[in-house]
Amino acid sequence: MNQEPALRIVTFDDIISEEEMAELLASTKVFNQSRDQGEANAFGMQEGIISSKRTSQTAWCQDTCKELPSYIAVINRIAEIVQVPSENFESMQFLKYHVGERYVEHHDMNNEKDNDFACGPRIYTFFLYLSDVEEGGETHFTQLNLSVKPRKGSGLLWPSVLSENPTVQDERTMHEAKPVLRGMKMAANVWVHLYDFSTPNHWACTGGGR
Ligand SMILES: O=C(O)CCC(=O)C(=O)O
Ligand SMILES: [Fe+2]
C-alpha cells in the first residue's frame, strides 16, 4: 500500500527564557539586510546575495555569542529534542522584521544539490520566536495550509527531508513568513544538518558567512 510518510511539525512553549533571549540579543547588535544562498563555487563556498525574497534583517551568533551560557543551554536543549549532536547545527541566525517585511515561499533545503556538501542537507529547522507580533508575521506552511502565530519564547520544529530518506526534500514543508502588519518580529533559525557542520564549515560548507 502506498502511504504518505509521517510528517510532524511540533510547537514548544517556553523553549527559551526572557533572560536567555536578552543575553543573546544583546550580543548581536549588527543586523544586515538578509541574504540568500547564491551559487556554490568549486569548494562548496556559497555566495551570499542580497535577497529580494527576504526583506528582513539578519545577524549570526558568532564567536563570543557562541560561548554565552544562554547559547549553550538553548543549543543543548534543541540537540536533546532533535536527538542530533550540536556539531551538526549551523550557528543560530537571528531575524528582525519590521512592518511590511516578509520572506516569500521557500524551502530550507535549497535543493537536492545540498547533498553534495560535506555537512549534507538541512534536515530540520528549529525556529525560535523571540517576540510576540501584534499582527501578521505568521510562519505559513503553504502546502499544508498551516499558520503558526509568533509567541515570544516558543519554538517550532519541522523537517526538511523525508525520514525514510534524508537526502530527499519533503516538499510539504514549503513555507513563508507572512508580512508583519503591526509591531516588530524577532526570531531565530537553528538549522540542523545530516552530518557534522562545524568542522567542514571551517573551510567551506553551506551556510558559511551568510
Ligand atoms: O520568519 C519566519 O516565520 C520564517 C523564516 C524562515 O523561513 C527562514 O528564515 O528560513
Ligand atoms: Fe525558511
UniProtKB/TrEMBL annotation:
Recite the UniProt keywords alphabetically.
Answer: Dioxygenase, Iron, Metal-binding, Oxidoreductase
Tagged with keyword Metal-binding: yes
Entries under SMART domains matching the protein: P4Hc
Q: Which residue numbers delimit the Fe2OG dioxygenase domain?
A: 88-194
- Which coenzyme or cofactor does it need? L-ascorbate
Q: Name one Pfam family in it.
A: 2OG-FeII_Oxy_3
Q: Any idea what this protein is called?
A: Fe2OG dioxygenase domain-containing protein
